[in-house]
Amino acid sequence: MNPNNIIPQNDCDELRDLLPSYVIGATTGEETARVQILLQKCPEVAAEAGDYAQITIGLLETVDAIEPPANLRNRILEQAMAEPPVQENLPDADRIIKFSPWWAAAALFIILLATNLYWAANNFATQNELQDLQTQREIIYTLLSDGQFQQFELLSSDDNDTVLARLLWNTENNELAVFATNLPGLTSEQAYQVWLLNDDAVDSAGLLQIDSNNHAFLIIAPDTDLTGYTTVAISVEPASGSELPTNAPIAIGDIGA
Amino acid sequence: MVNHDKVETAADEILMRRIEKQDNKAFAELYDRFGARVYGMTYYILQNQTLAEEATQDTFMKVWTKATKWDPKRGALITWLLTIARYTAIDRLRIEKRETPNIAIGLDEMLHLIGQTNVIDENIWYDKKVVENLLKELTPEQRESIELAFFQGLTHSEIAEKLDLPLGTVKSRIRDGLQMLKGLWLHESE
Questions:
Q1: What values do phi and psi take at A207, rounded to 5?
Q2: Chain B residues with beta carbon closer than 8 angstroms to that of A87
């Protein structure tokens, strides 16, 4: 089923209205979340986002150069000498994780799954907010009903029963979203690292990013085909990550058929 | 004829590759070339010398530690620098005003979008005179709302409150203004 066939055209009109504001940063949080979902549904309109982004170059060019105070140069150079660039032993997240407009929808997916509607009904201030939440759920489920998405779970290694993380695999785009809302706390010297495994390799997929709500997520979009991996695991590693796992996985699960 | 843009981009690439290797002299060269542009941007947004200096310093440190992130295929080095400077300054501005950061489009997404366009002639936006002529086509009200969003990081609602206007008016000013600019650009590119 192609979701474009069931999403009303007025959603694309809504995106067309919001897109210019979205690109220059004028949308509110709710509008931004809405745009990021609609970008998935209306690829023709989404294609215009790059055009509006080009306009921002022009806006930047309207600002005149100003000669900075003379001592600023030395301050910056001294700080640079004192803080050499971090030599990451992991692939740079921005290099392995390509931009993907669906990430926002995917991130919303896990948050919505984690949000009990009964709780929401008692805690959201207005019916409109509740309605928005319900609408967003419906959109997410519509997305998921498309054959290109598959869901998997990573179970706790301790009891093999508790779901510690969920995976959403966009097979068409070769992207895998990892979400977790139940991971134990870490010290500042630790991080959760995600691994892709097959019979021959254990490859780092990057560190889970933790947001202010303690939701952990990572979008994996490797250059290699994800179907070449059979298993995904999460382990506790040093804060800067590790080339190979140094601890047993706390969560693990199979992907694929 | 030598394509000046290509020569400049190649020079930028060499400079940034040196910075990736922690070449302090290359970093100094980068500052000497672009420091005034970055400081001009942070000062324009913050309107305060001390804050602008701090935001400029933060911007260059981000470049120093993340030099590998610049992709010449996705836009000119100056655009990358000024976009980082804009985001850094707006973050600082909102902190100074004790406002929560706006969760609109993120820096990485913005940088990605800049590299995506179907229109051939994107160089037009690097020509300040052309840009100013295009901006003159906007109404003063459209330009004001766009500038408040782009350079002050204000949302529709915040602009409406600041200008004491209906929310719908602000939304339409921004939408219509940017759609007009896009149309003019496409026309110029033909």
A1: -95, 140
A2: none
